[in-house]
Amino acid sequence: MSDTATLSAPEAPVQAPAAKAVRNDWSREEIAALFDLPFTELVFRAAEVHRTHHRAGEVQLCTLLSIKTGGCPEDCGYCSQSVKADSGVEATKLMEVQAVLQSAAQARDAGSKRFCMGAAWRNPKARDMPAIIEMVKGVRQMGMETCMTLGMLDEAQAAQLAEAGLDYYNHNIDTSPERYGEVITTRSFADRLKTLDNVRGAGINVCSGGIVGMGETRADRVGFVHALATLEHHPESVPVNALVPIKGTVLGDMLADTPLAKIDDIEFVRTVAVARITMPLSMVRLSAGRESMSEATQALCFMAGANSIFTGDKLLTAANAGDDADAAMFARLGLKPMEGEEPLRAMKAVGGCSGGCAA
Ligand code: SF4
């Protein structure tokens, strides 16, 4: 056959999940057994799940802007924005609303469908909320989805953001419950879950994932996926980050000169694949660490079920693959930017999925 058009991948329809396709009763043993599968078998199974529920040739483009950088009182061991880190990151004030909207317009013009805004806070203060609300409303008026990550939220703040029309709230669980206290001491794993409850209770979509490559064990990665996959409602979005070790941070200094500094690519892809299998309807987001991954590793991640990336040169304070590099990679891999609704949200819009769905 010489006509290459006839060889292009057919657009498989996204199917409603079969009964029990979405489970939140995963045991740690089951998740560990998935991690232990031969690599090609694991990726094959993840790809099957992915193709059943998602358009496998499409990847959603999101842009992340730091609207308030540095000076954060929390002590997350991976973060250059903590006051405890000696990373040279300067603390800034909250950006003006108009400047944020200008950045959002640029992101939209570059093809982003979602604009994520991050502030280095333990939690937003009452005085910050009016500007935050203006940002959410303004970005939504541009036709983009909105996501914010502002630290801990109480019920009233979550309700205010829901009222403004916020689509997603990001609040990562970071790592396994057991490892949490070794990475962060200024808040607890239970604090994290409380904010996720407040966000969910307000009707905002949940974005929650974590970071691998922080020197954790395979058992911690199992515990991390288990904590997310056994939530009563799976997060609509699950970012999987590879640690970018930054000099001056606790983990950056500890890991920079050790073989653990960069997670093994195969183990990273395994984590993506297990997240895809255990949370079949969620968007699995390739986040920090992508700029140091080969295209081949990223291609394996897309094969294993990752279907969203952050675009632009920066992810908060860390370097990211730039728009040009991503466009070239998409062309080489034959991927398209995602258009339209995510499968999970589309299913919710028509009254929920057909059986056993935790969403
Ligand atoms: S990760 Fe967020 S909460 Fe933790 S120190 Fe950095 S900005 Fe603060």
Compact overview of the structure:
With 359 residues, the chain is of the alpha/beta class.
Distance between the termini: 44 Å
Would you report the number of β strands?
12
Number of contiguous helices:
13
**Helix/strand class:** alpha/beta
Main beta-sheet strand count, sense and barrel state:
10 strands, parallel
Structure description:
The protein has 359 residues and is an alpha/beta fold. The chain has one domain (17-349): Alpha-Beta Barrel (TIM Barrel). Helix content is 38%, strand content 15%. Strands 1, 2, 3, 4, 5, 6, 7, 8, 9 and 12 form a ten-stranded parallel β-sheet that branches. The chain has a two-stranded antiparallel ribbon with strand order 10-11. It is globular. The N and C termini lie far apart (44 Å). The model is unreliable at 1-6 and 344-359 (pLDDT under 50). The structure holds iron/sulfur cluster (SF4). The site of iron/sulfur cluster has 8 residues, from loops.
